[in-house]
């Protein structure tokens, strides 16, 4: 059997973490969660994901800053980071991409298309 693809989901909202975990695990992904930047950086010392889902609006360190910190690490320069955010105003997508995100998914997520969106970033 093929090894499960690994995703790190950085999200401070408990309900959002549960929803994403359930959708992705049902599709065969291994999901590790972090609820803030400190946890995310700690997880990345022992877990190497194929993709990172990044909430943008988090307390203390926002997703833009955390994305820059992760992309600055040699071992994660090629790891896709996807902003998953309720920031949907003009310029928000561009700001995510400028911070180093490889893509952008709007909240609330569409449960019918979410896995397809993730798959697109993994290929």
From TrEMBL:
Key words of the record: Phosphoprotein, Two-component regulatory system
One Pfam family, short name: Response_reg
InterPro entries, per the entry: CheY-like_superfamily, Sig_transdc_resp-reg_receiver
Domain Response regulatory: 6-122
Protein's GO biological process: phosphorelay signal transduction system
Domain of life: Bacteria
Modified residues (4-aspartylphosphate): 55
Key word Mitochondrion present: no
Name this protein carries in UniProt: Chemotaxis protein CheY
